[in-house]
Amino acid sequence: MAMTASEIERLIKEAIPDAIVDIRDLAGDGDHYAANVVSASFKGKTRVQQHQMVYAALKGGMGNELHALALQTSAPQD
Amino acid sequence: MSENPVFDRIKNEVSSEDVVLFMKGTPVFPQCGFSNAVVQVLTYLGVPFKGINVLEDDDIRQGIKEFSDWPTIPQLYVKGEFVGGCDIVREMFEQGELRDYLAQKGIETQAA
């Protein structure tokens, strides 16, 4: 059971309300996406911590239903 | 809190070499595009590393995800410290941060 882009976006925004989420479907199979997530809550956090926040938002989907999510995270430029 | 028994094995592995890559397949024969991408970056930088094929050991394959609280493979460790998966290693490399990070850890890289 794959995940849809809108589902991924909804889950991320539920956990990170101010997130700006840009998702691209890489393979059209619901399994391989690229996502760029921008949120002020990433400020001061390492990339690993930022990515872990997004993975936590996906509630275990990452690495299971969702095989590949090429992730880029950043805090908004001041 | 009883720790996952495989954590001891993982701790030994990540401290056995300066640079350790938990991957799918082997450095010579990577079996996953993301694992291969990290192998290419390390090879380009001329950094010797130890590849651990998680496909051969399911305990390690699941245990490493719990150990680092990171849901996917590959996972790169430098001097016992978790650096990241494919996205982070590639982003650090592209922004020239990886070479500096390795130098800070006392690991030489080949000139570009």
Can you describe what's shown?
- The complex is a heterodimer of chains A (78) and B (112).
- By secondary structure, chain A is of the alpha+beta class.
- Chain A has 2 helices and 3 strands, in the order H-E-E-H-E.
- Helix content of chain A is 28%, strand content 26%.
- In chain A, strands 1-2-3 form a 3-stranded mixed β-sheet.
- In chain A, strand 2, helix 2 and strand 3 form a beta-alpha-beta unit.
- Chain B contains 5 helices and 4 strands.
- The model of chain B has no long low-confidence stretch (mean pLDDT 95).
- Chains A and B meet through helix 2 and strand 3 of A and strand 4 and helix 4 of B.
Whole-angstrom Rg of chain B: 13 Å
Low-pLDDT residue spans of chain A: none
Mean pLDDT across all residues of chain B, rounded?
A: 95
Structural class, from secondary structure content of chain B? alpha+beta
Strands ordered across the widest β-sheet of chain B: 2-1-3-4
Return Rg of chain A in Å: 12 Å
Helix content of chain A: 25-40%
How many DSSP E strands of chain A? 3
The biggest beta sheet of chain A, please? 3 strands, mixed
Topology record:
The complex is a heterodimer of chains A (78) and B (112).
Chain A: H1 5-15, E1 20-25, E2 32-38, H2 47-57, E3 68-74
Parallel strand pairs in A: 2-3
Antiparallel strand pairs in A: 1-2
Chain B: H1 6-16, E1 19-23, H2 33-44, E2 50-53, H3 58-68, E3 75-78, E4 81-84, H4 86-94, H5 97-104
Parallel strand pairs in B: 1-2
Antiparallel strand pairs in B: 1-3, 3-4
